Amino acid sequence: MDFSVKKEQKQYSQEIIDFARENLNDSEFYEEFSMDMWKKVSEFGLLGITVDEKYGGLGESYETAAMVFESLGYACKNNGFIFVINNHIWVCQNLINLYGSDELKEKYLPEMVEGKKIGAIAITEPEAGSDAFAMVANVKEQDDCFVLNGTKMFISNGPIADIFIVFAVTEEVPDKKITAFVVERNFEGVTTGNDIEKMGLNACPTSELILDNVKVPKHNILGKFNYGNNILTGALEWERCFEFAPHIGVMQRIMEQCIKQANGRKQFGKPIGSNQAVSHKIAEMEVNIEMAKLMLYKIAWLKDQKKSAYLETSIFKLFVSENYIKTCRDAMQIFGAYGYTKEYEMERELRDAMASSIYSGTNEMQKNTIYNMANARYM
Ligand SMILES: Cc1cc2nc3c(=O)[nH]c(=O)nc-3n(C[C@H](O)[C@H](O)[C@H](O)COP(=O)(O)OP(=O)(O)OC[C@H]3O[C@@H](n4cnc5c(N)ncnc54)[C@H](O)[C@@H]3O)c2cc1C
Question: Pfam families under this entry (predicted)?
C-alpha cells in the first residue's frame, strides 16, 4: 500500500483550490445555475479529468480525480454547482467513456469535455425510486430506431442538460431487462419540466424528463441491448464514490471554520473550545474526515485497477453522508445563533447536505446492500 501523495497531485489539488476560490464562490449564484461559471470550469479543463486525451480529456487516474474533487469541495462553497459538475462527469460522460461505442465516444465526448454539452442521468420515475427496477419507461423496436416512452423524475441538470443517459425496459419476460440509451434533448418528443424547488443544492436545477415517442437511433445504445442492469450498477458505484468525494472537502472546510470559532468566541471568560462539549464535536469531525479519506482513496485505487467496488461505495456513501450531515449540524451548534443566520452560511451547508442521505440510493438502501453482501459472505 502506498499512501504517498505525488507532487503533481498536490500541485493539481492546489490549482483547483486557487481556481475555485477565485471563480466559483460568487454568492449571487448559490441559488441558481451560472452558465458563466460552467464556462470557466470547462476552460479550466476539469470536465475531462479522466477522459482519454484523444477525446480532449486529461487522462488522469481516478486516484488523482478523487483528490482533485475533494479539493473542489474544500474550496468551492457552491455545493449545488459541484452537483452539476458531478452529474455531468460521473454519471453521464463517464458512462459514455466506459461503455460507449467508438462512434458514440467520438460524437459526444469532445463536446462534453469542452462543456459545450451538459449531461444528466435518468433512472428514477414517479413510481420507481428506491425500487429502480420497477421502472416502466418502455421501448419499442422499429426498423431503424428504438421508440422510447416514459417519464423520469428528479433529474439533476434536467433543465440545462443536452444529453441524457436514459434507462428503460427492453424485455419483460421471462426476466425483466433494461437498456441504457443516449438521448439528446433535441430528439423529437423530449421535454423537461420546470425546475423543481428544493430545500438545497439550488444551483443545480432539477426536473422531470418526459419521453413521448422519442425515436432513438439504434447506435445510441450504451453497451449492449438488455445490458442496462450492469451499467446501472456501474453508474451507482461512480456516483457513490465521486459525488461524495467533494463532501469530504466540505467537511474539512467547515471543521476549520469551527476551530476558528471555538478559539475566537469567548463565553464565561474563556474560549468556547475549552469546553469538551465543543472540542469533542471538532475531534469527531477530524476522525470522520480521516476515515472518509481512507475509504475514498481505497475505492479510487480499486477503480484504477478496473475492479468492482459495489460494497465499498455503499459503505462510503453511507458513512460520508451521515457524517457530512452531522458535521453541518454540529457546526451550527458550535456557532450558536450566528450559525442559524443566513450570513454565516451554515444553514445553507446543512440544507445542501441533507439531500446526501437520499440521492444515489437512500441510506436505508445502502444498509440493505451492506447487510446482504456481508450476510452472503459469512453464511
Ligand atoms: C437532490 C436529488 C437529486 C437526484 N438526482 C437524480 C438524478 O439525477 N437522476 C435520477 O434518476 N434520480 C435522481 N434522484 C432521485 C433519487 O435517486 C431517489 O430520490 C432515491 O433513489 C429514492 O427514491 P424516492 O425518493 O422515490 O424514495 P422512496 O423509494 O419512495 O423511499 C421513501 C423512503 O422509504 C425507504 N425505503 C424504501 N424502500 C425501502 C427498503 N426496501 N428498505 C428500507 N427502506 C426503504 C427509503 O429509504 C426512504 O426513506 C435525486 C434525488 C435527490 C434528492
Answer: Acyl-CoA_dh_1, Acyl-CoA_dh_M, Acyl-CoA_dh_N
Q: Is 362 in the pocket of ligand 1 (CB under 6 A)?
A: yes
> The pTM is what?
0.97
Cα 125 to ligand 1 centroid, rounded to whole Å: 10
CA of 372 from ligand 1 middle (Å) equals 19
Q: Which atom of ligand 1 is nearest to the CA of 128?
A: 26
Do 323 and 372 share a structural domain? yes
Show the 3-state SS of the chain: CCCCCCHHHHHHHHHHHHHHHHHCCCHHHCCCCCHHHHHHHHHHCHHHCCCCHHHCCCCCCHHHHHHHHHHHHHHCCCHHHHHHHHHHHHHHHHHHHHHCCHHHHHHHHHHHHCCCCCEEEECCECCECCCHHHCCCEEEECCCEEEEEEEEEEEECHHHCCEEEEEEEEECCCCCEEEEEEEECCCCCEEECCCCCCCCCCCCCEEEEEEEEEEEEHHHEECCCCCHHHHHHHHHHHHHHHCCHHHHHHHHHHHHHHHHHHHHCEECCEEHHHCHHHHHHHHHHHHHHHHHHHHHHHHHHHHHCCCCCHHHHHHHHHHHHHHHHHHHHHHHHHHHHHHHCCCCCHHHHHHHHHHHHCCCCCHHHHHHHHHHHHHHHHC
pLDDT category at 2 given cuts 50, 70, 90 is confident
Number of compact structural domains in the chain: 3
| Per-residue pLDDT at 84 | 98
Residue 64's domain comprises 7-118
Atom 16 (ligand 1) nearest CA: 359
Question: Which of 118, 138, 172 is where one domain is finished?
Answer: 118
Indicate if 286 belongs to the active site.
Answer: no
